[in-house]
């Protein structure tokens, strides 16, 4: 089954014309483009004794280079693969949990995002799911630290959380250079 979604974050996220507000107290804002492509839902259940409950992710690429001009509409896509052996991706906004988390190494601030709303409706609990996700970071929402006015380095760590609160492994994203 193929999943193709588009989400956009400015001060809101748009997922198939449905808006969700993000907390305003976050330092790092980002445009999010989530594209689920080539997601495969297994046709048979796997033996739970041989597979853990934790989702897993791996870094694939940075698309759009590795440099962002602060205040611009330029963006860089962070592309990563994901898999969840139990098909438990897609947190409900009512749960208080998000799906994708990025941690900024400069100040340890955490920004959280939802997978597209429709993802939960397409998954079958107990069946594994895997695919590719693209998270876009936009220059318009980046800031230079005061002591780094001539340029800064954004170092992000990324992980996902399934609907049972089980955290994936954490991946380190290659450095993204911020320019004035």
Give a brief outline of the structure.
This protein has 180 residues and is mainly beta. It has 1 helix and 14 strands, in the order E-E-E-E-E-E-E-E-E-H-E-E-E-E-E.
Description:
The chain is an all-beta fold and 180 residues long. Helices cover 2% and strands 39% of the residues. The protein is built from 1 helix and 14 strands, in the order βββββββββαβββββ. The protein has a 4-stranded antiparallel β-sheet with strand order 4-10-7-5, with no helix packed on it. Strands 9-8-12-13 form a 4-stranded antiparallel β-sheet, with no helix packed on it. It has a 3-stranded antiparallel β-sheet with strand order 1-2-3, with no helix packed on it. It starts with 6 loop residues before the first strand and ends with a strand. The relative contact order is 0.28. Mean pLDDT is 74; it is low at 1-51.
Distance N to C terminus: 43 Å
Structural class: mainly beta
> How are strands sequenced across the largest beta sheet?
4-10-7-5
Q: What characteristic shape results from the CA principal axes?
A: elongated
Q: How many β strands by DSSP?
A: 14
Main sheet record: 4 strands, antiparallel
Helix content: under 10%
Mean pLDDT score: 74
What is the radius of gyration? 16 Å
Low-pLDDT segments, ≥5 res: 1-51
Number of helices, counting only DSSP H or I runs of 4 residues or more: 1
Strand and helix order: EEEEEEEEEHEEEEE
Q: How much strand content do the residues show?
A: 35-45%
Defining key terms:
1 helix, disordered N terminus, mainly beta, 39% strand, 180 residues, four-stranded antiparallel beta sheet
């Amino acid at each position: 089954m193929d999943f193709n979604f588009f989400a956009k974050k400015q001060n809101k996220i748009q997922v198939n014309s449905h808006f969700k507000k993000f907390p305003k107290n976050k330092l790092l804002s980002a445009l999010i483009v989530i594209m689920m492509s080539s997601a495969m839902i297994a046709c048979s259940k796997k033996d739970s004794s041989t597979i853990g409950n934790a989702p897993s992710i791996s870094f694939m690429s940075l698309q759009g280079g590795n440099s962002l001009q602060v205040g611009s509409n330029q963006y860089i896509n962070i592309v990563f693969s994901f898999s969840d052996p139990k098909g438990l991706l897609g947190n409900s906004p009512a749960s208080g949990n998000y799906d994708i988390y990025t941690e900024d190494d400069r100040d340890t601030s955490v920004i959280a995002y939802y997978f597209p709303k429709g993802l939960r409706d397409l998954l079958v609990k107990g069946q594994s799911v895997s695919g590719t996700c693209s998270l876009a970071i936009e220059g318009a929402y980046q800031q230079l630290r005061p002591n780094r006015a001539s340029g800064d380095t954004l170092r992000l760590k990324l992980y996902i959380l399934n609907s049972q609160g089980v955290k994936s492994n954490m991946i380190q994203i290659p450095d993204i250079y911020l320019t004035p």
